[in-house]
Structure formats: C-alpha cells, structure tokens
Design a protein that fits this description.
With 308 residues, the protein is of the alpha/beta class. It has ten helices and 14 strands. Keywords: ATP-binding, Kinase, Nucleotide-binding, Selenium, Transferase.
Length: 308
C-alpha cells in the first residue's frame, strides 16, 4: 500500500494519508503542477477515498534558478497544483519553498474517513477481473519528446521511423493522461463493489501488481491478457531495445491509472460508466486466479496490445 490507513481511537474514524513528490519531467510548469497533484492524490484514491480534507504542497526551488526564473516558474507550478486541487474539490496550503540543488514537487494528502469510505486493498478473489484506468507508456512518451528537442542519440534512432508530429502527439497524450485525476475511478470502485486496487506509478504495472498481491487475504495469481499502451510507445520501445521491459509491465510510469480487482459481472459496467463519466477508456486487462503462492504473469504469446 502506498497510503497509510490509521484507525483513530474515537468516533470510528480513520486517517488515510499519503506523501509523494518527484522531479519535473515536462517543461510546462502549469501542467507539471497538475501532474504532481494527480500523482500525489492517486495513492489515496486507490483506497476508494474520494474526499481530500487537507493537502499541503511540497516544493523546492533549485539554487541555480535566477531570480527571474524563480519568480516566474515557481508560481506557475503552484498554480497548476492548485488548479488540479480545485478540480478535486479541496484546498491547498503551500509549505515553505525550500532552496536546494533540485526542483522537487509534490505534496501530502490527508482524509478523515468513516469505514464505508475506504476500500482496503486486501479482498481480491478468484474469479475477479482486473481493470486498468489509464494506458501505459508515460515515461517513454515524455522522454522521447525531450530527446527530440535535445537532438539526443536516442532521437537519432527514433527519427528514422517516427516523425516529429508522431512524437508530439504521443507526448500530449501522455501529459493529458498523467494530469487526469483518478477520483472518478475511486467513486466507481464503491458503486461496483471493488475488492482491491493500487495505482500504477514508479514500479510499473508488474511491480505494483506484485505488491498488491502481497496484501491479499487469499493466495492469488494475476494473469494479464491485455496491455493498453499510448500510441507509438511500443514502436519507440522496439526501436530502442526496450520492448521486452514494456511488455513485461516493468516500464516506469508517472501518475498512472488504478489497477482494480472487480467482480467479473461488474467490470463491463464499470468501464462503460467510467467512459460516460470521464470520456476516457478503462480496460479489462486480466483475471484473478487461485494460486499456491502470490504470482503475476503477462501472457507472452497471446497478450492483446491496444494502441491508445
């Protein structure tokens, strides 16, 4: 679990809290602020909690910034973070802006919850299906764009097969995906009786799925038969010799979707209502089976790959 769920001694309440921060990965400070908020809040949304009662922004300014760079970029990062918070329906307090060698952005999200507001990520069962609410490939999509701008060695390989427009299109899809909140998915988890969930971020699909398996009350196997991947990312991975890692679910993600274990008869309705509510797709990507030990497998020969 990436969030702490702490029962309180009074009023049958619990604190759900998460702290997350990272380094900027795109050059638009407003969008970067939105992504930082979405990434931070995602850990809480993965527990089914949809209301954030307190959010504190964490931000540090690089000591190499000029005064003008600081006065322009930091307020834009804060604006993007606050814009996303407004979309989430919560207020933000900004802690002191530290100065160090790195630009760091993130925050702390806290919610005070009744038991019914929390879906503990422990009750996946044989016969469930696995739903993913965002496509994979964000890290490579953003890296390729910056390689293109910098004329890096990797871009020299990519440009033999992809146009600059291809890379820009892929980059924009990744940015919009990363900035999209997992709040609607958390809301629908309650309606459709989700049994467990995790968000997919720095450890990739496989890393977060394996971690989720460790918390289950039953001994289970997650079998993945479908991988939705941002358009052009698989081609990029193949050109650069990274396809095996991508298709093994090991590629690093930033502000990815929720991986949710749902009753089989609820999953299609979840995906349909998610599309109606957000105008984005969610995909049934796998199944939950009984196992003698926690295990995760992606079908090698018959895995369906979806360009998103």
């Amino acid at each position: 679990m990436d969030s702490a769920v702490i029962p309180l001694e009074r009023h049958n309440l619990s604190i759900v809290q998460s702290v997350d921060f990272f380094y900027p990965l795109i050059d638009d400070p407003i969008m970067m602020g939105k992504i930082a908020f979405a990434n931070m809040a995602s850990d809480v949304y993965a527990t089914g909690v949809v209301t954030l009662d307190k959010v504190t922004m964490i931000c540090s300014c690089p000591d190499k910034f000029s005064e003008k760079e600081r006065d322009v970029i930091i307020p834009l990062l804060i604006r993007g973070f606050k814009n996303a918070a407004q979309e989430a329906g919560c207020q933000v307090s900004v802690g002191g802006i530290a100065v160090n060698p790195w630009c760091i952005l993130g925050g702390e999200a806290t919610s005070i919850c009744t038991p019914g507001e929390i879906i503990l990520p422990i009750n996946a069962s044989p016969g469930d299906v696995l739903v993913l609410t965002k496509p994979l490939g964000t890290q490579l999509a953003t890296n390729a764009y910056h390689w293109m701008l910098d004329g890096a060695e990797s871009w020299q390989k990519l440009k033999e097969h992809l146009t600059e427009d291809d890379v820009r299109k892929t980059y924009l899809k990744a940015v919009n995906s990363m900035a999209f909140l997992n709040k609607s998915a958390a809301e629908l988890m309650h309606k459709h009786s989700a049994h467990a969930a995790t968000d997919v971020t720095g450890f990739g699909l496989s890393g977060h799925a394996i971690n989720l398996l460790k918390f289950q009350t039953k001994t289970l196997k997650f079998l993945i038969h479908t991988l939705p991947i941002i358009e052009n990312v698989q081609r990029m991975a193949k050109i650069l010799g990274r396809e095996q890692k991508l298709l093994a679910g090991e590629a690093v993600e930033t502000s990815g979707g929720l991986l949710i274990a749902l009753p089989k008869d609820s999953a299609n309705n979840f995906c349909r209502e998610f599309k109606d509510k957000t105008f984005n797709d969610a995909w049934i990507i796998g199944s939950v089976e009984s196992s003698t030990s926690p295990s995760f497998e992606i079908l090698k020969e018959d895995c369906k790959l979806i360009d998103v």
